[in-house]
């Protein structure tokens, strides 16, 4: 996550294209949201044979999601 002018630059946990979000519309991930995202990523990797070996064990300190 970074910032461009008054907006935050966000990126999905699994990587991908960044987008701009207004800071007042951003909040930290809940434990449930983080678990759901990591489980989806792990499942996707298992289907493609990439495994889950390089997934981070903890969210970034500033792990936030737009919402």
Give the gist of this structure.
By secondary structure, the chain is of the alpha+beta class.
Key words describing this protein structure:
three-stranded antiparallel beta sheet; alpha+beta; 1 helix
Q: Whole-number average pLDDT? A: 77
Radius of gyration in whole Å, from Cα?
A: 13 Å
How far is the N terminus from the C terminus? 15 Å
Strand order of the largest sheet: 1-2-3
Portion of residues in beta strands equals 15-25%
Helix content: 25-40%
Shape: elongated
Describe the structure.
This protein is of the alpha+beta class. Helix content is 27%, strand content 24%. The chain is built from one helix and five strands. It has one helix at 31-48; strands at 2-4, 7-10, 19-21, 26-28, 64-66. The strands form two sheets. Strands 1-2-3 form a three-stranded antiparallel β-sheet, with no helix packed on it. The protein has a two-stranded antiparallel sheet with strand order 4-5. The radius of gyration is 13 Å and the shape is elongated.
Write the layout of secondary structure elements.
Blueprint: E1 2-4, E2 7-10, E3 19-21, E4 26-28, H1 31-48, E5 64-66
């Amino acid at each position: 996550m970074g910032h461009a002018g008054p907006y935050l630059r966000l990126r999905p946990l699994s990587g991908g294209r960044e987008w701009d979000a207004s800071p007042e519309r951003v909040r930290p991930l809940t434990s449930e949201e983080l678990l759901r995202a990591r489980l989806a990523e792990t499942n996707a990797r298992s289907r493609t044979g990439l495994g889950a070996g390089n997934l981070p064990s903890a969210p970034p300190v500033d792990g936030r999601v737009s919402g």
